[in-house]
Write a structure and sequence with these properties.
Blueprint lengths: L1 E4 L4 E4 L3 H8 L5 E4 L5 H6 L7 E4 L8 E4 L2 E5 L4 H7 L4 H6 L4 H6 L2 H6 L7 H6 L3 E6 L4 E4 H5 L8 E9 L3 E9 L5 E11 L2 E7 L5 E3 L1 H8 L4 H5 L16 H17 L2
Parallel strand pairs: 2-4, 3-4
Antiparallel strand pairs: 1-2, 5-6, 6-9, 7-8, 7-9, 10-11, 11-12, 12-13
Length: 263
């Protein structure tokens, strides 16, 4: 592992997962940079001044392994690689995120761990994914849902790998605002595995969340259209610069119905 000093930070560049884990330690005073697409503008603008910066581009956390019906994806895997090699619906969701330049740099771990409503969070929720991570107390594996609930907390963790069972079918549908980098303001993911269908949404509530009322309606034998009508049971539509709460509440059932029809 090499370390270099800049004007304001110690820069750590691990060359293996074990070195990354050692360098991260308990996460105190360290900023983790995967692709840098979210954090580097903050650093350049002076809004974020790290004491130590941990760069993961050479840490070997970028493997995609599909074997025995399971999938494991390193947190440092670029979205370009996820779009090309991951199963559906994760591949489609990654393919539609931002633009090619961003996808070549941005990482799965960054999208899941850096912001509270990353586009791929709902996809991993629908996949019932787990995340292996490290920090104070060492390594542990837990559901992505539990990992996401700690946003804003004091328990700093470094995501290492995401895992899930390969689904029988998956679909992803979204709405976005045209821009140089389109902003996804609402998206729905549906995943079928065996007799169960899992559904999750981005933009239906602050953050990303599952829609258990829809899932239960499907399990009880409801049609996709009738199940989609239950989407608002678990939603908390809100106003922001991209869409109003009223519009979100009107569109969500339609997106859910579309995602279920595409399975």
């Amino acid at each position: 592992m090499t370390a270099a000093s800049t004007a304001s930070a110690e820069v750590l560049i691990p060359s293996s997962p074990s070195e990354a884990i050692e360098a991260f330690g308990d996460g105190d005073g360290i900023v983790v940079i995967g692709g840098g697409t979210i954090l580097m503008p903050e650093i350049v603008a002076g809004r974020l001044v790290p004491e130590r910066a941990l760069l993961l581009s050479r840490a070997g956390l970028d493997a995609i392994i599909r074997e025995g019906g399971t999938v494991r994806i390193g947190a440092g895997t670029t979205l370009e690689a996820v779009a090309a090699e991951a199963p559906e619906p994760l591949a489609t969701a990654a393919r539609q995120l931002a633009d090619p330049e961003v996808r070549r740099q941005a990482t799965l771990g960054g999208n899941i761990s850096t912001i509270s409503d990353g586009d791929l969070q709902a996809v991993l929720l629908a996949l019932d994914a787990t995340v292996r991570h490290t920090g104070s107390g060492g390594e542990r594996t837990e559901p992505v849902a539990s990992y996401l609930r700690r946003f804003g907390g004091d328990d700093e963790r470094l995501a290492l790998e995401f895992g899930f069972d390969e689904p029988e079918a998956g679909s992803y549908t979204r709405l976005d605002r045209p821009h140089a980098h389109p902003y996804t303001y609402m998206a729905v993911t549906a995943v079928r595995a065996g007799s169960a269908t899992k559904v999750a949404a981005k933009g239906a509530s602050p953050g990303c969340s599952r829609l258990p009322a829809v899932e239960q309606a499907l399990a009880d034998g409801a049609s996709p259209e009738d199940a989609a009508a239950r989407a608002l049971d678990d939603a908390e539509p809100f106003d922001d610069a991209l869409a109003s709460a009223w519009y979100r509440s009107r569109v969500l059932p339609t997106l859910v119905a579309r995602a279920l029809a595409d399975l």
